[in-house]
Write a structure and sequence with these properties.
Blueprint: H1 14-34, H2 40-62, H3 66-90, H4 93-101, H5 103-128
Helix pairs in contact: 1-2, 3-5, 4-5
């Protein structure tokens, strides 16, 4: 019995949560189109993008795997790289690098270096946590 891994049961509200989320997204798209006079292509594209995000969230929470969790950590790290890039641009260092080295080295530093460092930081954090997402069973 020690080698058998017990499957954790989902709460009773788990399935209705995902159904309610999809229904509320559809209703909000219809309200946006009918009552708020949002153009139809904008309402449909917003609902479609929301469905894609809900699908990703469902996959991450309901069918977790080591590979998907690693991808989530790396994408979170790219968010850290974005914050580093914003600080690079806002503090004036980016302007100084552009004036000193030129446009292309500044672009390479601004995008490739910061996002790569951010992805490596995200992967390092994930490795430290054994790629377990917060609040995961």
């Amino acid at each position: 019995m020690a080698g058998v891994k017990l499957k954790s049961s989902k709460p009773r509200w788990w399935k209705p949560l995902w159904i309610a989320t999809l229904l509320l997204t559809t209703v909000s798209g219809a309200i946006g189109y009918l009552l708020l006079h949002v153009p139809i292509e904008r309402a449909v594209s917003a609902v479609a993008l929301t469905f894609v995000c809900i699908g990703i969230a469902y996959y991450i929470r309901v069918r977790p795997s080591m590979t998907v969790n690693r991808i989530v950590y790396i994408l979170g790290g790219i968010g850290i790289g974005w914050v580093m890039w914003v600080l690079y641009a806002v503090t004036g260092i980016g302007r100084w690098v552009t004036d000193t080295l030129g446009v292309w080295p500044s672009l390479i530093i601004g995008f490739a270096v910061f996002y790569t460092i951010g992805a490596l930081i995200g992967d390092w954090i994930g490795r430290k946590r054994n790629y377990r997402l917060p609040l995961s069973p």
